[in-house]
Design goal:
Length: 395
């Protein structure tokens, strides 16, 4: 009787073995698919290291762009603007005004020691773009409530001079309210997204990252697709165990690896120019992913719409160069003519770059969510469209 009880308490190994076999059978296609994807990624990596052009796009291009624009603008264009003041009056009122500008506007005020200058000649000789002149008897007129004007000499072609001029105008308006003792019940707060919160190098890094990501994704995808199309590899895929989604995922995973590599190099080189690495945000990885998906999708579309390989490369160059120059990725878009500001919004890189810049100021920024939403739609739309129109049997 006791032997029967012991035997009944023992667990039958057969159900466990059957369960393990079912799990293995279910995972076998997944493991096989992963193996095929990894094999294709390995093949893409070998092709990459054998191609000097692709290595240049991925490694050398972001380094050159960061060094070039960082050296040109990273140190000279800064958020801490300097204003030179020629104070002819030398009164208590004029001194208080210059102190007000320095303490309430964020401007660095440099009062000239000269007693007599020609403002226009002084600007040319000292390669300056703006000069504020306080006329004689300005304090006397001001204390007697007599209208008196300040004179500003500035270079109309300089965006920084225009920004400083706006700051001066705002300060004068504020002082007028104080002098006239007006009860100001309606206030307005003016903030410049990039001037007040980011140094130029900080706003430059997202542009270089997205230029690198877009160029890498577009050119390398076109290179892979054209070679596969010309060699007939795509038609041969139909006779292999490789599925279409595995082919797409393998190439996209490799593109993402290259995009993150180029982005990392850009950030590291930007540290030379005092880039604030604390401005980086984890969501930027998603934006970089969107950039890779967007331009990989555009590449797939171009290859299928244009049959001539030379025509495909010409179309990519025709798209890439205007995008780099006109999208606002490298230079502030507010310095463009109004027409070109609308043109900039045609390019996908505009929304990706603006979203990343806004993210540096905090994800709560409304402008971030607008650009992030548009980037999401573009990434999914272009990538899915590229997959749909790719037909292996027709290649």
């Amino acid at each position: 009787m006791s032997e029967d009880i012991v035997q009944s308490d023992e667990i039958d190994p057969k159900p466990i073995e059957l369960f393990i076999r079912k799990i293995r059978a279910a995972l076998k296609p997944v493991v096989s698919s992963f193996r095929r994807i990894s094999n294709q990624i390995g093949g893409l990596s070998l092709g990459f290291f054998r191609s000097p052009g692709l290595i240049f796009l991925t490694i050398v291009l972001p380094i050159i762009l960061t060094l070039l624009f960082g050296a040109l603008f990273g140190s000279t264009i800064d958020t801490n603007y300097q204003l030179d003041v020629f104070d002819k009056d030398q009164s208590e009122a004029s001194i208080q005004f210059t102190n007000y500008l320095e303490n309430n506007t964020g401007l660095t005020i440099e009062v000239l020691d000269e007693t007599r200058i020609n403002p226009i000649e002084w600007l040319k000789e000292n390669t300056k773009t703006i000069l504020l002149v306080i006329p004689m008897n300005w304090g006397v007129y001001l204390n007697n409530s007599v209208s008196t004007d300040l004179t500003v000499y500035y270079d109309h072609s300089s965006s920084s001079a225009k920004t400083i001029l706006k700051i001066i105008e705002e300060a004068v308006i504020d002082l007028n309210f104080e002098i006239l003792a007006i009860d100001n019940t309606l206030g307005i707060e003016i903030e410049d997204l990039y001037v007040n919160n980011l140094k130029f190098i900080d706003s430059l890094v997202p542009g270089i990252i997205m230029i690198s990501v877009s160029t890498i994704a577009l050119i390398t995808s076109l290179s892979y697709d054209i070679n596969e199309k010309q060699s007939g590899i795509l038609r041969k895929f139909v006779t292999t165990p490789v599925f279409k989604f595995e082919w797409v995922l393998a190439k996209q995973f490799w593109q993402i690896i290259l995009a993150f590599l180029a982005s990392t190099l850009t950030v590291l080189i930007a540290l030379i120019f005092d880039f604030q690495i604390t401005k980086l945000h984890p969501v930027m990885l998603v934006i970089i992913l969107y950039g890779s998906l967007t331009f990989s999708g555009i590449a797939m579309i171009l290859v299928r719409l244009i049959s001539n390989p030379e025509g495909v490369m010409f179309a990519s160059v025709l798209f890439t160069i205007p995008q780099i120059l006109l999208s606002g990725a490298l230079m502030p878009i507010d310095t463009f003519p109004l027409f070109l500001q609308y043109v900039a919004r045609v390019f996908p890189i505009y929304y990706l770059t603006e979203g990343m810049r806004a993210l540096m100021l905090g994800p709560s920024q409304g402008v971030f969510w607008i650009n992030f939403s548009i980037s999401t739609v573009m990434a999914i739309g272009f990538f899915v469209m590229g997959i749909v129109i790719t037909k292996w049997k027709q290649e």
